[in-house]
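Researcher: Here's my situation. A collaborator sent me these components and asked whether they could plausibly form a single complex. I don't have experimental data yet, so a predicted model of the whole assembly would be a useful starting point for our discussion.
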Amino acid sequence: MFGFSLPKLVVLGVIIFAIWYVYKIYERKQRILVKEDQDKVKKDTSSVDMISCKNCGDYFVPSNGSIYCDKDTCVVGK
Ligand SMILES: [Zn+2]
């Protein structure tokens, strides 16, 4: 009786583990997809606003119509 049911229990355990493992991978994949979408949106919105600094050439997000960046290393022209 015991020798007959133990393999069944092992197989059942393996099946449950496999289902749980597949679900875990699926859940992680979904989370990565959502994160990639958020990153894409973030990148799209920032790239629209970026302009090149007329002094050092670095790209930055302009504030109140300035053509120069706010970096400490970029002081010429201020
Ligand atoms: Zn600059």
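Model: Some features of this prediction you could bring to your collaborator: The mean pLDDT is 82. Residues 2-50 form one domain.
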